[in-house]
Amino acid sequence: MIAALQVSLDGYTQGSDRGGEEWVDSWADALGLVPDVDAFVQGAGMYPGYGEYWAAIHAAPDAVAPFSTRLPYAREVAYAEAAERTPHFVLSRSLEGVSWPPSARVIRDLEPLRALKEQPGKNIYVVGGPTLVTGLLNEGLLDELKLIVHPLLLGGGRALFAGVSQPRKLELLTALPGDAGRVIVTYRC
Fold first, then answer.
1. What is the pLDDT of residues 46-57, one digit of tens each?
2. Rounded Cα gap, residues 40 and 47, in angstroms
3. Rounded to the nearest 10 degrees, what angle do helices 47-59 and 74-84 cross at?
4. Sheet of 88-91: strands edge to edge?
5. Domain, as residue range, for 74
6. How far is CA 16 from CA 5, 7, 21, in A?
7. Is the pLDDT of residue 141 over 90?
8. Which residues pair with 40 in a beta bridge?
9. How many C-beta atoms lie closer than 10 Å to residue 172's C-beta?
10. With 80 as the cut, is the pLDDT of residue 173 above it?
């Protein structure tokens, strides 16, 4: 189970109350970091916007998607196509249902994810956000964490690891330079 998140240099995630959407150029960048995906996992907080955004790109790749002011990049269209054909599990106690992709389903607890993780196959991509990632870390379900670190200090917002239940040492696997001063850091959990 692999999570890939975009984070500011001072540890805050996109979607904060301090302008996260403006500094994240594309939400599709993380998919290229997680090859061979068999399933996507996300929480109820992220799903509604995620579903609306990627369903719109899949349905009309030549139109401006919700929450955007530009046409989708080719990598975003590719992500929408991959996401459309890949099962999605949305962890939620409050959502009654999910509509996109057609294979998406709501799960109420971590047991289906534990069972999925035990099955042979490829990677499970944790789409995010920080609450879900922290919960999976706390439960020992996350195997790898990839951070796309932006050279930006937000000074506040939504902390990436708020709620970690105990100190945890991660093993550095790689640290690679990215575009526009970003650094992609990969840890084994």
1. 899 899 999 999
2. 11
3. 110
4. 105-107, 88-91, 37-43, 123-128, 2-8, 144-150, 183-188, 171-177
5. 2-188
6. 13, 10, 8
7. yes
8. 88, 125
9. 9
10. yes
Give residue 99's identity as a one-letter amino acid code: S
CA distance 36 to 122: 6
* Tokens describing residue 69: 């002011």
User: For the domain that residue 160 is a member of, what is the CATH number?
Assistant: 3.40.430.10
Which of the four pLDDT bands, split at 50, 70 and 90, describes residue 188? very high
Phi-psi region of 101 (alpha: psi -120 to 50; beta: other; left: phi over 0): beta
Tokens describing residue 102: 């057609």
- CA–centroid distance for 65 within its chain: 18
Average pLDDT over residues 96-124: 93
Question: How does 60-85 read in b/e, with b if 16+ C-beta sit within 10 Å?
Answer: ebeeebeebeeebeeebbbbbebbbe
Q: In the 8-state DSSP scheme, what is residue 71? A: P
Amino acid at 56: A
Can you say how many angstroms the Cα of residue 149 is from the centroid of all Cα atoms in its chain? 14
Strands 171-177 and 88-91: unpaired
Q: How far is CA 58 from the centre of its chain?
A: 18
3-class state of residue 7 by DSSP: strand
Angle at 85 between CA 130 and CA 52, to 5 degrees: 55
Of 30 and 46, more confident: 46
Q: pTM of this prediction?
A: 0.86
